Amino acid sequence: MDNKVILIDVETSGLSAARDRVVDIGVIYEHEGILVDTFQTYIYLDEYPKSYKYAEAVHGLSPKFLKENGVSEEEGFKLLLKFLDKHINKFDKQDKAVLSGFNIAFDKRFFEALFTRQGNKFIDSYLEHTPYDVLKLARECNKQGIIDTVDNKLVTIAEYLEVNLTEAHSALADIKATREVNKKLNALVEGRKKKGYI
């Protein structure tokens, strides 16, 4: 993970990117391994699914909180694009970022669905085609015995690596922890390589 990286985490109203919506999005822009900028916004919904109580039980974002602290999806998307445009020239085919996160396939689906709903077809103008998944790295580290955790959940890996995650399931807190987890896992992998274990 070098050059430009966009790390994202989303909290949602459910598990289906087709039916459900993003209610909290956290983004980190990293360049050459340095954290340059962050973005976060809450998004309120005009209507919440009946199953929202299960999502709320995970992330704790009530409709009342979102209405008082969030913006509409349209406004949230505009703010997100402003952030991306600040760091990536979408008109330059060589200027793209690697998309990254923890279980990035989930976040990527919601990210793409957000672009689609807002009538924007240019997500590929910002991002490389192949994302980088920190969860995949964590699983491999467990498999290789580099770490030893009971599961591969972010909160478990973060605790094992002594990465602060006091606001689990807050999008920005989660993605900051993901970035630190990635750094520590890569450092452990490099240490193994130097000792000739890999």
Word description of this protein:
It is a single chain. By secondary structure, the protein is of the alpha/beta class. The chain has a single domain, classed as Ribonuclease H-like superfamily/Ribonuclease H (Nucleotidyltransferase, domain 5), CATH 3.30.420. Helix content is 43%, strand content 17%. The chain has seven helices and five strands, in the order βββαααβαβααα. It has helices at residues 52-59, 63-69, 73-87, 104-117, 134-143, 154-160, 171-195; strands at residues 4-12, 22-31, 34-42, 98-101, 132-133. A five-stranded mixed sheet has the order 3-2-1-4-5, sandwiched between helices. Strand 4, helix 4 and strand 5 (132-133) form a beta-alpha-beta unit. The protein is globular, with a radius of gyration of 17 Å. The chain starts with a strand and ends with a helix. The model has no long low-confidence stretch (mean pLDDT 95).
How much helical structure, as a percent, in the residues?
A: 40-55%
Provide the CATH architecture. 2-Layer Sandwich
- Gyration radius, to the nearest Å? 17 Å
Fourth-level CATH superfamily: Ribonuclease H-like superfamily/Ribonuclease H
What's the tally of helices? 7
Instruction: Tell me the CATH topology.
Output: Nucleotidyltransferase, domain 5
Which stretches are low in confidence, meaning pLDDT under 50 for 5 or more residues running?
none
What is the first-to-last residue Cα distance? 19 Å
What is the string of helix and strand elements? EEEHHHEHEHHH
Helix- and strand-based class?
A: alpha/beta
> How many distinct domains?
1
Name of the CATH first level: Alpha Beta
- Please tally the β strands and state the result: 5
Overall 3D shape: globular
Beta-strand proportion = 15-25%
Sequence of strands across the biggest β-sheet: 3-2-1-4-5
Main sheet record: 5 strands, mixed
